[in-house]
Amino acid sequence: MSWTKTHLVGIEDLTLDELETIFRVTTSFKGILTRTVKKVPALRGKTVVNLFLEPSTRTRVAFEMAAKRLSADVVSVMGSASSIVKGETLRDTALNIQALNADIIVIRHTAAGAPAYLSRISSIPIINAGDGAHEHPTQALLDCFTMREHLGDLKGRKVTILGDILFSRVARSNLWALTKLGAEVTVAGPSTLVPSAFKHFGVTVCHDLKTALADADAVMLLRIQHERQAVAHFPSLGEYTSMFGLNKTRASWLKPDAIIMHPGPINRGVEIDSDLADSSRSVILQQVTNGIATRMAVLYLCSGGTPEALGETSDE
Q1: 265: cis peptide before it, omega within 30°?
Q2: Which of 132, 53, 40, 61 lies closest to 94, judged by CA?
Q3: Where are the domains of the chain?
Q4: What distance in Å separates the CA atoms of residue 237 and residue 230, rounded to the nearest whole number?
Q5: Distance CA 221, CA 246 (A)
Q6: Which residues pair with 268 in a beta bridge?
Q7: What is each CA distance from 216 to 61, 203, 220, 257, in whole angstroms?
Q8: What is the DSSP string of 55-116?
Q9: What strands, in cross-sheet order, belong to the sheet with 47-52?
C-alpha cells in the first residue's frame, strides 16, 4: 500500500488502494488512542492551521485533537476572526498562513471548490474539511471505517443514505467511497431532495422508505441542509418527518443487525427519533470517536508519513 498525495480535497480522485492505505493507518492510530499516553511524535515540530470559515463542532475539534495526538502545534482560525471579514481574499489568507511557516492547512469553506483552488497555489498540504455541497472527505472516510468495523468487507453490503442528498457533501463523499469499496448503495428521501440524477454515481434512487430500508445493512440519516437551500423543497419539517423520519416502527423494517448512522449534527425528532439515536443499534458516537483516528491518518499521510514508518512513531 502506498500514498503519494500531498493534498486531500475529495474522495472522487482517490483509488481503492489509497482508501485501503488510509484505513490501515487509521487502524494503527485508533490503537494509540486506547493507550494511557495518547500521543505519538509523528508531527512534532509541525504546525497545523485549522481555517474554518463555516461553523463546525465535531470536525474542527476532531482535527484539533488529531493534530495534538500527533504532537503538532495547532492554530484554529474561525471565519469571524479572520481578515476575510475585512475583505482579504481566500488566496491571500492562505498564502499569509503559509508565509507564517504553517505546515498544513485544514480548510472548511462555504464555496465548493475552495480547497481544490488552494491546493493549486499552495506548497503545503491542503485538507478539505468540507466545501459547500461538494465533498466532506474525512467524514466519508470515518463513516466507511466505522461500517467496516461492524460489517467487515463492504463489498456487496447494502447501505441506505436517507435524507437531504441534493445538498449534502457528506452524501457525495460517501457515494464515491462506498461505490469504490463495492457496496450497494441506495439514496432515499423526497424526490425534490433525491433526484434521479444521482443514478450516475452507480447507486439506486428510491422514494419509498420501506423499500429503501428493507434490506439495508446500514442506514445513514442526513439532516436537512437549510443553510444551502434557496427555496423550500418540501412543505414543512413536520411533513418530512411524517414521511421520512426514522422512528421505532420504521426501524423495524431494517434487518435486526443493521446499524444506524448519522454524521451530525442531529435534529432529534426530525430525521431520527431520540430513542433510536441513543439505542444499541446506533454507532453515531463511534463515528465521532473514529473521526479522530481517521484525521490523524490523513494528517500523517499528507505530511509525508508512510504506513511502513508507523512503528518508528509508536513511542512518545
Answers
A1: yes
A2: 53
A3: 16-136+291-313, 137-287
A4: 16
A5: 8
A6: 272
A7: 31, 13, 10, 10
A8: --SHHHHHHHHHHHHTT-EEEEEEGGGSGGGGT--HHHHHHHHHHTT-SEEEEEESSTTHHH
A9: 73-78, 47-52, 104-109, 126-131
- Give the length of the chain: 316
Fold for 16-136+291-313, please state it.
Rossmann fold (3.40.50)
3-state secondary structure of 48: strand
Cell of 251: 426501524
CA distance 55 to 294: 21
Question: How do residues 23-61 score in pLDDT, each as one tens digit?
Answer: 999 999 999 999 999 999 999 999 999 999 998 999 999
Strand partners, 8: 127
Q: Which CATH superfamily is domain 137-287 in?
A: Aspartate/ornithine carbamoyltransferase (3.40.50.1370)
What sign has the CA pseudo-torsion 11, 14, 17, 22?
Answer: negative
177 HSE (CA, 13 A, CB side): 30
Q: Find out whether 224 and 267 touch, Cβ atoms under 8 Å.
A: yes
Q: Has this prediction a pTM greater than 0.70?
A: yes
Q: In 3-state terms, what secondary structure has residue 137?
A: helix
CB atoms within 10 A of CB 209: 18
Q: 217: helix, coil or strand?
A: coil
pLDDT tens readout for residues 55-111: 899 999 999 999 999 999 999 998 776 778 788 999 999 999 999 999 999 999 999
Question: Which residue, chain included where needed, has cell 494528517?
Answer: 299
